[in-house]
């Protein structure tokens, strides 16, 4: 009987999530857009016959056409090809930095909330110092000091995103560690690591995931901003921020060069916010009682 129930549990949780998403149907729009962008980025060669780095001086700054649906840039490179290959870089940097921030920030919040005292005070003061700097300014300083390489950009964006995750993990940990089941675990001699990972983390994971979806949008925007001011991944590697920067120089004659990647960023951030709203509703206890 136990073995028969186990396979149904994930399906039951999935059905419950689908029901809650149906309450806020715009979340399906966000999820669909995000999945479409990811599929196009991963399978970019299937969606374009052009090389994003190939130059054609005979077609410099040509407008949208059948051959080049979004035109070409100042080097004759296909804008659509650079856009979808650039999505790989922007999404990879955004996802990597958000995952790192989520893991590190959640660990700090769990430990600070669990142990409390001086350790909690010191860690939260460090988080407050990081929060005092705007994320773009702090990322700019770090990248300027370390160099504009992909690992350094990921590290800079992750560092600016750690404090929100630490705070959202700390508050419920403080509340949960006083619960009866946690006291029972202590009386049974369970280690702190087991209690935190097995009994507390699963109860706060939903809030962390919701925060992750929202901060992924911030990470993509920060990466694009760094690239726009010249501190992103170096050309000729296509990135959305770099495309906006190069397109801005020809904004009066070839506006599509800056408009197309700007719209791509807008659409992805819009999709992530719609998805975040749906995930937030999914973990809202009041909404759970209504569905």
UniProtKB/TrEMBL annotation:
Transmembrane parts of this sequence: 28-47, 89-114, 126-147, 196-217, 255-276
Organism name: Shinella yambaruensis
Family: Belongs to the binding-protein-dependent transport system permease family.
Locations listed in the record: Cell membrane
Database matches in InterPro entries: BP-dependent_transpt_permease, MetI-like, MetI-like_sf, OppC_N
Transmembrane in keyword set: yes
Topology with respect to the bilayer: Multi-pass membrane protein
Highest taxon of source: Bacteria
Name under which the protein is recorded: Diguanylate cyclase
